[in-house]
Amino acid sequence: MAILENAFRRRDLHDPSIISFIFGNTWMAPLWLIARLYLGYQWLLSGWGKVYGDSRWIAVDGQDGQSLRSFWERAVTVEGGRGQIRYDWYRDFLQFMIDHEWYTWMAWVIALGEVAVGLGLIVGLFTGIAALAGATMNFNFLLAGSASTNPVMFIIAVLVLLGWKVAGWIGLDRWVLPLLGTPWQPGPALTEPLSRAPLHRREPSPG
Amino acid sequence: MEKALVLLLGVAAWVGVAALALFVVEYWGDDNQVLAFIPILVAVVIAWAIGEAVTQRVFTPQEEGE
After folding, report:
1. Which of A22, A44, A78, A95 holds its CA 20 to 30 A away from the CA of B17?
2. What is the spatial distance between Cα A190 and Cα A118, in angstroms, rounded to a whole number?
3. What does the pLDDT profile of chain B (66 residues) look like in tens digits?
4. 3-state DSSP: chain B helix, strand, coil percent, rounded to 5?
5. A38 CB near a chain B CB, below 8 Å?
């Protein structure tokens, strides 16, 4: 019992200063901006083609999501005892979605989600959440056996996610995050009455 | 009134960035991603400068620990 108490006694382990600097210092914001814009453009490019244009996934004549259905069907196909998907549970999951025609609405989720992630990263709004959503989509594409740009985008998304505090500093997060705060520390927009303007008017400094 | 105008300007600047990004994607697409990157980066810098130079004079975001 004493061993457990000693092992799990509360300790605060601090990051090395270089890690704190990279992921938490606003001087690094320009670097994160470049990463964010690259990632955002890739998602916007990918998502916009699914939302608008001749090869779009949604709002088409007939049933939506036929392209997604084809992608899933290719992914679950097993030829010669070997398929694109290495995990049986993920193949079963895709097969379940095909059988229940989930591609009709998942096409909307993916297409609009990619556009939202792209725009969120470009304007720096909820950058951490956008990066997490992007990484989740990359992860699913990778599980389905589609490599393409997904590994690189996944790595960049994870880095942006780790740098969420400063990644959107040159962006809307500079204004929105202090207003809304975090789930563990709500900001003035959620804790103060509307009459007390959550965006504080700057008082002129004396002298 | 001043606050509303400044807030509107700040929001418009970032909506403009999003609109420009969509425009670039639609008309430039995948042809030259480096060239496509430049107008978006310029738009972001302009929107950021508006935030720092104009919006910040009327509104100031709370700093950590404030």
Report:
1. A22
2. 27
3. 777 888 888 899 999 999 999 999 988 877 777 788 899 999 999 999 988 887 776 776 666 544
4. 80, 5, 20
5. yes
Instruction: Give me the amino acid identity at A168.
Output: G
Q: How many Å apart are CA A74 and CA A91, to the nearest integer?
A: 11
Which residues in chain A have their CB less than 8 angstroms from residue B40's CB?
Answer: 37, 41, 122
Q: What is the mean pLDDT of each run of 10 residues along chain A (207 residues)?
A: 87 90 94 95 93 86 88 89 87 95 94 96 96 96 89 96 94 89 81 60 46
Amino acid at A45: L
Task: Please list every residue in chain A whose beta carbon sits closer than 8 Å to the beta carbon of residue B22.
Answer: 44, 48, 119
Q: What number of H helices and E strands is found in chain B?
A: 3, 1
Measure the CA dihedral B29/A41/B7/A169, to 10°: -160
Q: What length is written for chain B?
A: 66
